[in-house]
Amino acid sequence: MLFHKFRRSLSLSPALRKISTLTKVSTAIGLAAAFTLLPTVVSSQALAADELSGPRALSKAFRDAAKVAIPSVVTVVAYGQQSGAENSDPSQPDNPLQPMPRDRSGNRGNGMRATGLGSGVVLSSEGTVVTNNHVVESAEKVIVRLQDGRELTATEVHGDPDNDLATLRLDIGDVELQPMELGNSDQMEIGDWVLAIGSPFRLEATVSAGIISAKGRTIDRIRRGSLLQTDAAINPGNSGGALVDLDGRLVGINTAIATRNGSYQGIGFAIPISQVRWVAEELLAHGRVRRAAMGIRLAELNASVARKVNLPVGLGVLVYEVINNSAAAQAGIQPLDVILEFAGQRVREPVELQNVVERMPIGSTQPVKIYRKGEELDLNVVLAPLDDPTDVLRQEPHLEKGKADQEKPAKGDEEAAKKEAKQPAKDKPSPAVDEAPAEEKTEAPAKEEAAAETAEAASAE
């Protein structure tokens, strides 16, 4: 009885029962909505996480780097070069995929034939651009086309054939240029991602991706310095274009390819920005590159050479020849000496020593540590201007065991030695492989076919 009374006391009025029912329905709808929205929230979080890892992250890195770098890459058109038989007219379509419109430069060459087309990179907002020397060499007029289609005329062109670099000063008027931020090529490692940006086959602002395949490469077309190797696609028209890191910073200037057919086959070369910066500063300030020299020829102390001269492998850089009355001769450096240090810097590779020496002030006195007959000696050399073609040997020196040339050879022998030194070394592309510049040239189909057979050097390096 008490129980029944208690239940009655808890009975709700009709109005309260209605409110209770509405509350339950609202709660149920709210819970349903919460469970409905929860998968959406989780899905968004998953997408955000996916964006930060894996292929999507790499894709975003490529996009961001390209967006930063593309505005600083230009197309370079040269007019009036005498080597027109090898150059290609960028106003004539040859794209095998689709017809190309006539070149927008129109008659900017004042009636001159467009003889070369490549790429370039803006270095400063004041109107300085860097490109390859082989793109603009001997041109009577050079036009630079920006990404928005505007064209500027180069008022000054200075080139350095030894490094295959050239600088352009542009008449910019009120045009605002976006210079590219410079990276650090010395810190780039094999396997690092890079983007190549340029105008291959006249397709402006083309971006290709790859990695740093190797460092310290040397090829015959570039007499001084070493190169970065990349598998990012580089083709005719890419010469002088940018190789950038994933921050969109310039780490190299694309200059050559190793190819059997004149186009990309997976091996491209770029001049490191550490070299580009120095050469560009010299060209812009002096119109030429002033280089210091000691007056010696150098060879790598590899296993074969070391065996011939009875020296440890990799000890330092072997002095193969000393030029009479040169700075090195006056300092007491002799053939078969091994240079261990120069200006306090340890050196092991000929190109490494060459790079250090040539950037020193001409006339300055620099300490040199050498190894001779089991002893280390400290000498001082007064650097002279580079006016003799002595250089790093691109192949093994011809040495009888324990002997080296004691003085500069006779003229006939010297010419033969130079001719022989031009032959490809074992670590370079085989003679059947063309070291081609990444510049577009005209009327070249027959030349390209011949190049595949004769290994004639082309410009796509």
UniProtKB/TrEMBL annotation:
Basic and acidic residues bias (residue ranges): 391-429, 438-450
Keywords assigned by UniProt?
Hydrolase, Protease
Q: Does the keyword Disulfide bond apply?
A: no
Q: Which residue stretches, if any, does this entry annotate as coiled coil?
A: none
Q: Where is the composition biased (Polar residues)?
A: 82-95
For bias type Low complexity, the affected ranges are 452-461
| UniProt region (Disordered), positions on chain | 82-117, 390-461
Superkingdom of source: Bacteria
- List, for all copies, the residue spans of the domain called PDZ: 292-374
Tell me the InterPro entries matching this sequence: Chloro_Bact_Ser_Proteases, PDZ, PDZ_sf, Peptidase_S1_PA, Peptidase_S1C
Which CDD domains does the record cross-reference, listed alphabetically?
cpPDZ_Deg_HtrA-like
Q: Does the keyword Hydrolase apply?
A: yes
Please, one GO biological process term? proteolysis
Q: Which GO terms describe its molecular function?
A: serine-type endopeptidase activity
SUPFAM superfamilies linked to this entry: PDZ domain-like, Trypsin-like serine proteases
The cross-references to Pfam families, in alphabetical order and at most eight, read:
PDZ_2 (PF13180), Trypsin_2 (PF13365)
- Tell me what this protein is called: Serine protease HtrA
Could you tell me which species this protein originates from? Answer: Roseimaritima multifibrata
Encoded by which gene?
htrA_1
